[in-house]
Design goal:
heterodimer, A: alpha+beta, 6-stranded antiparallel beta sheet, 6-stranded mixed barrel, 25 helices, 24 strands, 51% helix, B: alpha/beta, 6-stranded mixed beta sheet, globular
């Protein structure tokens, strides 16, 4: 029987090549898109699932309250919290800690090699987590100070091989580290990423680091709970614990920290950067595209009803019941879905690199030998088959023998309304996607071109990574200033792009501290960045009294309601006089309004992090060559690395720009598939009306008359779709724009423009066939009678 | 075999009932060869479709081997007609996408006949109808007479007790028509009950008796 169905389906497809092609490729493209989305989702859900006992591991996160208000939450905290948790709570089996990422320069044959992603990790780290050790010992590798475990990547970069156990590494700062192990690179789906681990005891051995409860918030602590411990119950006891260890001392400032547990498996999706949002977003888009393609299939199959009605009737006459007819068409749909799946797998494979790149994740490739993926693909096949095949099977199996033999068009008008609903849906989705894409595009280019209050063009950034550079910043600056083409050079703690650090300060008249953004700069900073001083004066090298002075921005003055800011004081480790006010500039992303800012002339530890060069040249390569030479003269220990401020800005919005591109691709896909459907539907209906068109032409109808005749129904549908799509997309765009402090107005013309695009596409696709038929000699179409 | 009591068929269009069949009473015994005659629109095909369970009467009783057809649901009807009735149409109604062989095989596929027996039955019938050479051709590669031959072969492959033929020679020229009528006669002689609808007096004579329909009524 299946062979009989298969033969019939196959020969039917061959006979109607155009529709077969549209069905298979329309479904194929959407299946490809869905496969990519599924691969991505699977990868996202696989984060951190490779750790043994992972369901008992929790990350400690801390919420910081000031005067009862939540200020921020952070999973980086002080070093001793893990030690004390284990000591005081029997529920805690063990803990481990690691520091935030550091950059190291290791010497190899006197050539400095940069290794980023170096973290200080507890001796328990390798045993606690499941990272595969290639050489060394899980429990003994990170015990003593100055021991280091390299990843395969770092070992190869430094030595060109991984057989390096027992060798010594010389860091640029003169320290020596003993290699006690080599570990495989952390998998792509690991939250914890590193290139090298240095023993945590190294930190304790260095008196520079404060490792108590009042120490730097630089450390991430994980705990492993004993079996059957309820984390909620345990967490409820943390309040008293935190009071004893830290909050009691801070209560005078009205500051409080509350600790809670984040399950390891939730860290990426729930507590990570928009992981879940992206998953929802792409699931919805994937589902919509699949629906659009399935609706094409449904409409095309039911419209071809007349071609199949006779066969169905005959089958019923010779013994088929309704169930077997329904099954036959479901089977036929499954065959087409299978062909579409093959096309989809091919396309998914083809587009994986692009999608990976845009999503900035390294999700796994499609792999048919992976049982989970195979099961997923089969499930996808079945659901496509069912979504696309159910209605046609139901509809076609209901054909009455007597009707089919007598009059082919009998069910015609009944079909119209359902078909129209499907077309309507397709165009509501397509038009909404076009509108949203246009607005997202407009907003992103608005952000790119917005006046920021400083000049970000032609600024080269040099990072002061090593001690030598930090100690000799003044010399480097003076040397760089002598290069022709360099207009101005400034050292600072950071460059404006993605926000500055913040500290607690006591502004004049405040008894509790206020958290304010801070930036440390030299006296050339405002000149270099063309930031306007609107009151008071700049820092000056000559006046040593200025060392302790602050310059603030307008936002700060406004927040504290100061009429005469000059001369006011702000307290932090002593009183600081305000000597100037700068015009507000956007130092953080445009998602946020400009917040108050304190600018000091005294960097932490007396060392700046960054040099900014304002340049003017027509030959960047030559200029960069000169800058590199100057750098090497003074600081050969650190390899010359530079960046442009523009790049940093692009980075801030990379994720958004990539999402925007993906959105664009998906929108194009959706509208192409919808248009394809409209095209084939209209050509089918024109085919069925060939005779009518011939007669009308003979009777004197013009080309326009005929085009209108055949496209009216669809055009009306697309117009209605626009009307429905406008409020939907308005709502969504408005909601999205609320993520930005600086945003575009929602313009009416975008709606009109997208409506116009959709209408044009519909009009062209629909009338194409009609015009072709109308241009043909009517005698040909009438002769068949 | 077949008893019709007060069968009526009408179509409702808004408030007007259009009658196709009125108060049809008739009985057909197993082994009979009955010809139904009448002018166009007299209701011949509708009557045949109701007997063949492709259509249902609006009123009246229909007994098939003493079972009440008018009380059956779609599935029971389908089962009954599948195992007892074969059809032959004026315009053949072969499946265009299937070859002669596949067309013949389809009815017994629906009856879930096993593969070995299926092959044997198709081979037997191809042989009997002398169309073995045509078995891999598609319907549009055959002449009208050949198509009708295949259609008759398909109608009897499931070994039905009743064959319903709706103007079986209507599209054929007289030579081919005669051949088909002889074939039906032979089947009848072997015990198959046959009801045919026809315009032609000559063809009607092949039957044992003639039922005349006029505007939905049986002419006595």
């Amino acid at each position: 029987m299946l062979k009989n169905y298969f033969i019939t389906a196959y020969r039917n497809l061959l006979r109607n090549k155009t529709y077969a092609f549209i069905n298979i490729f329309g479904l194929g493209f959407s299946v490809g898109a869905v496969i990519l989305v599924l691969l991505y989702i699977r990868f996202e859900f696989s984060y951190d699932n490779f750790h043994k006992d992972g369901d008992r591991i929790y990350r400690i996160s801390v919420e910081s309250f000031r005067e009862g208000n939540l200020e921020y939450e952070s999973y980086t905290f002080t070093p001793p919290i893990g030690i004390d948790l284990k000591q005081e709570f029997p529920e805690v089996e063990n803990y481990t800690r690691h520091s935030v990422n550091k950059v190291f320069y290791f010497n190899n044959n006197d050539r400095p090699i940069r290794i980023g992603g170096v973290i200080y990790a507890d001796s328990t780290f390798l045993d606690f987590f499941t990272f595969d050790l290639i050489s060394g010992n899980k429990t003994k590798s990170l015990i003593n100070p100055n021991e280091i475990v390299l990843t395969e990547y770092a070992a190869k970069k430094l030595f060109g091989k991984i057989d390096v156990l027992g060798k010594t590494l010389h860091a640029e700062n003169g320290k020596e580290y003993l290699i006690t192990g080599v570990v495989k690179n952390p998998p792509a789906n690991s939250t914890i990423q590193f290139n090298a681990l240095i023993s945590f005891s190294t930190l304790y051995a260095n008196p520079r680091y404060s490792m108590g409860w009042n120490g730097g918030n630089q450390y991430i602590t994980y705990v492993k709970l004993k079996k059957n411990v309820n984390p909620i119950v345990l967490q409820s006891k943390f309040s008293g614990f935190m009071w004893e260890h830290i909050n009691k001392d801070l209560s005078q400032y009205n500051v409080k920290y509350e600790a809670y547990l984040q399950p390891l498996k939730d860290i990426h999706l729930v507590y990570g950067k928009s992981g879940l949002t992206n998953i929802y977003f792409f699931s919805i888009i994937g589902a919509l595209i699949l629906l659009i393609a399935s609706f094409n299939f449904i409409n095309l199959t039911t419209s071809q009803y007349t071609k199949r009605a006779k066969e169905i009737a005959v089958r019923k006459v010779i013994g088929a019941d309704r169930k077997s007819i329904a099954f036959q068409f479901l089977f036929e749909t499954m065959l087409i879905a299978f062909a579409a799946l093959l096309v989809g797998i091919f396309l998914a494979k083809l587009f994986t690199p692009i999608y990976r790149n845009l999503m900035q994740t390294n999700f796994y490739e499609i792999d048919l030998l992976d049982p989970a993926q195979l099961a997923g693909l089969i499930a996808l096949l079945l659901s496509v088959g069912l979504i696309a095949g159910s209605y046609p099977s139901f509809y076609l199996s209901s054909v009455k023998v007597t009707d089919a033999f007598k009059n082919n068009q009998l069910l015609g008008h009944k079909r119209f309304s359902f078909q129209s609903v499907l077309i309507l849906f397709q165009f509501v989705v397509s038009v909404s996607l076009i509108i949203i894409t246009l607005f997202v595009n407009e907003q992103l280019s608005f952000i790119k071109n917005k006046e920021l209050g400083f000049d970000k063009e032609n600024i080269i950034l040099l990072s002061l990574q090593n001690e030598n550079a930090r100690k000799h910043t003044e010399i480097i600056k003076e040397r760089l200033k002598t290069i022709p083409g360099v207009i101005s050079v400034s050292a600072s703690s950071a460059a404006p792009s993605n926000g500055f650090t913040s500290n607690g300060y006591f502004p004049e008249g405040f008894s509790t501290p206020v958290t304010i953004n801070a930036l440390d700069v030299d006296e050339d900073f405002f000149k270099t960045y063309k930031i306007k001083l609107i009151e008071g004066k700049n820092f000056s090298k000559e006046l040593s009294t200025d060392d302790d002075a602050y310059i603030v921005n307008e936002a700060l003055v406004k927040q504290f309601g100061w009429k005469n800011p000059i001369g006011k004081t702000i307290t932090r480790d002593g009183k600081h006089l305000i000597i100037g006010v700068v015009k507000d500039f956007n130092f953080a992303s445009l998602h946020k309004n400009i917040s108050p800012l304190i600018i000091t002339n005294k960097p932490w530890g007396g060392e700046y992090n960054l040099i900014s060069l304002k340049v003017k040249t027509s030959d960047y390569n030559a200029l960069l060559g000169k800058i590199e030479n100057a750098w090497k003269e003074i600081n050969p220990q650190q390899p010359f690395e530079y960046g442009f401020l523009d790049w940093k800005f692009e980075q801030v919005y990379t994720a958004e720009n990539n999402l925007m591109k993906l959105f664009l691709y998906f929108s194009i896909l959706a509208i192409v598939i919808a248009a394809l459907g409209l095209f084939s539907l209209s050509s089918l209906s024109v085919e069925q009306r060939t005779k009518e068109i011939g007669i009308r032409k003979v009777l004197g109808a013009s080309l326009t008359n005929l085009a209108v005749l055949s496209s009216k129904k669809y055009i009306v549908l697309v117009v209605i779709a626009n009307v429905i799509a406008f409020p939907i997309s308005y709502y969504l765009v408005n909601k999205w724009l609320q993520n930005y402090a600086y945003k575009i107005d929602i313009n009416l013309w975008v709606f009109i423009f997208s409506g116009g695009i959709a209408l044009t596409i519909a009009l062209v696709t629909v009338s194409f066939q009609a015009v072709k038929k109308a241009l043909a000699n009517p005698i040909d179409s009438l002769r068949s009678e | 075999m077949i008893k019709l009591k007060g069968i009526e068929k009408y179509y409702k269009n808004k408030f007007i009932k259009t009658y196709v069949l009125r108060n049809i009473n008739m009985e057909i015994k197993e082994g009979e060869f009955v010809s139904v005659m009448g002018s166009s629109g007299a209701g011949k095909s509708t009557l045949l479709n109701i007997i063949g369970m492709l259509d249902v009467a609006s009123n009246g009783e229909y007994l098939f081997f003493n079972e009440s057809v008018h009380k059956m649901n779609e599935k029971q009807l389908s089962n009954l007609h599948k195992s007892y009735i074969g059809f032959v149409f004026q315009s053949y109604h072969l499946i265009d996408e299937l070859t002669v062989y596949e067309n013949l095989e389809t009815p017994i596929l629906y009856q879930k006949v096993k593969s070995g027996e299926r092959k044997a039955r198709v081979a037997e019938i191809l042989d009997e109808f002398k169309i073995v050479a045509k078995k891999d051709l598609f319907p549009n590669q055959l002449s009208g007479g050949q198509r009708q031959l295949v259609a008759v072969a398909r109608a009897i492959i499931a070994e039905p007790k009743l064959i319903l033929a709706d103007e079986p020679t209507g599209n054929l020229h007289s030579e081919q028509g005669k051949e088909i009528m002889e074939l039906l006669k032979k089947l009848n002689a072997n015990g198959t009950t046959i009801i045919q609808v026809t315009h032609s007096k000559e063809n009607a004579e092949y039957g044992d008796r003639i039922i005349k329909l006029n505007d939905g009524w049986i002419e006595e």
